[in-house]
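Model the whole thing, not chain by chain.
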Amino acid sequence: DQQVKQNSPSLSVQEGRISILNCDYTNSMFDYFLWYKKYPAEGPTFLISISSIKDKNEDGRFTVFLNKSAKHLSLHIVPSQPGDSAVYFCAASAPGNEKLTFGTGTRLTIIP
Amino acid sequence: DVKVTQSSRYLVKRTGEKVFLECVQDMDHENMFWYRQDPGLGLRLIYFSYDVKMKEKGDIPEGYSVSREKKERFSLILESASTNQTSMYLCASSGSDRTGKGHLHFGEGSWLTVV
């Protein structure tokens, strides 16, 4: 049972344009959401997070939006740069639960 | 900067062998995790630990065990390796609190091939 879903396995975006990565979840108990970025042969690195009490969090070129009623979050990267080419995982956690549940990942390719 | 070190980057083991994957973190983090990453399946949690000698099953613990004798070290053990355990294994640690909302710091991963 995949509680966190990333329905797009891959995405290609022109350099300088906006990249939008999407994530859906089914567990209404999730109250904290994170995005991780992973380069080949490296471990994932934390990118940005959002608590369920907010609907938007911004950090430089990265913005995460949360729509609780739709159980949907998205990561916006603008402007996209070649170094953003990586696999992006969204993750979620519930209160009182030590673990993160990850999505299946989206491979983002930025075209120069 | 947090450093999570996984002892082996690439391993090839035979079916039925006992396999140890070691992970060490240098930031005095309470929580440590083992995930595996497979194409199309994302990261799946095998086991985690929030204190020395404590362990909790994740989503896919079957065929695995863990050991946490010291705070900085968390070992994943495959008692009898099978070909379906061929995967990339990722160790992570976090230290803010026990709710898992601390940001996970991952090691570089261990690629295990079971033949």
